[in-house]
Amino acid sequence: MKFYTDYLWFNTEKRREYIRITNQVRDALEKSGIQEGMILVSAMHITAGVYVNDNEPGIIEDLDKMLEELAPFGPEYLHHRTGEDNGDAHLKSLLIHHQVILPVTDGKLDLGPWQEVFYAEFDGRRKKRVVIKVMGE
Amino acid sequence: MKFYTDYLWFNTEKRREYIRITNQVRDALEKSGIQEGMILVSAMHITAGVYVNDNEPGIIEDLDKMLEELAPFGPEYLHHRTGEDNGDAHLKSLLIHHQVILPVTDGKLDLGPWQEVFYAEFDGRRKKRVVIKVMGE
Amino acid sequence: MKFYTDYLWFNTEKRREYIRITNQVRDALEKSGIQEGMILVSAMHITAGVYVNDNEPGIIEDLDKMLEELAPFGPEYLHHRTGEDNGDAHLKSLLIHHQVILPVTDGKLDLGPWQEVFYAEFDGRRKKRVVIKVMGE
Which superkingdom, per the lineage (chains A, B, C) (predicted)? Predict the structure, then answer.
């Protein structure tokens, strides 16, 4: 059984950004040499997410708009009593989820035709990490 | 270490359908011969989901109603500039999540008494796939 | 390849509670002796969730408030035709998701500085379980 672990670093310019990371995941898979297994891609921060969906700018804006409606930036969250201003980012991260598992079959990411992996930053402009862990044979 | 990969095909009559697939997952587990491990069940399309909950028609309708409130079918999503009309289906998929992992213990799905696996179609009437990947020993 | 499976029992005093279980997951990891792999932490009931976020009382209240807005306790869900009164709890569980996967690297939970694992009870005052499955080498 083989394992390969890698970390991606992000430091976005904007507070919220959606960054495609499918190629970085594919690089980790190639370095691992694994033919069958799974890859965990998981945000290491509580104000960011990882998801799989379409690499189409419109749907990314639609997603951002929906998350802003469900957990808007601005109001006085109870979390802000700590001095933070990112309560919305925690809630957005929980709604979109912070991780995905990607199947590996015959040495390849076993994704559907339009599936791409995204890092969703909800409280950027600081250094943050994602862990990629490949596991299999 | 053993792996077993299978694919389920769907082509629903309605735009939105919720289909129980616990038995198909159990079949894959039996074919794998695995006694200890995990099963990834993951939609391969960006307008469908996979979730675990109750096989009770009322709660399935309640879920559909909530998703329609949070990401309704109809409005002009930005995604529709591409000619598509399924922006809501992408967002519903992201809210419900597109995958689950099921634990396998002593050769059986290690689920609680009411847990059932569902495929959630949000943009049906076309051929779509789910990957089932069993991994363990 | 090694596996270690453990179960946590809960019987909360309140209908809704958010309980930190990072230490129990770490205990399971130590008992497993696994150095590299993944841990599945998954609620075995359809009215509870498991998530990773901040152990800060304000954000936990903010999360509870958001879930109450999206799937409030009280209204007549269709699920209640069965005699149940917990339709909201099913929907809250689906929104927050019922499981997480934690990476294990060098014998340790490979979490970011503020990441803690939580059990989210949405229909308590009865005995309920979470499965912890450690898998690796």
Answer: Bacteria
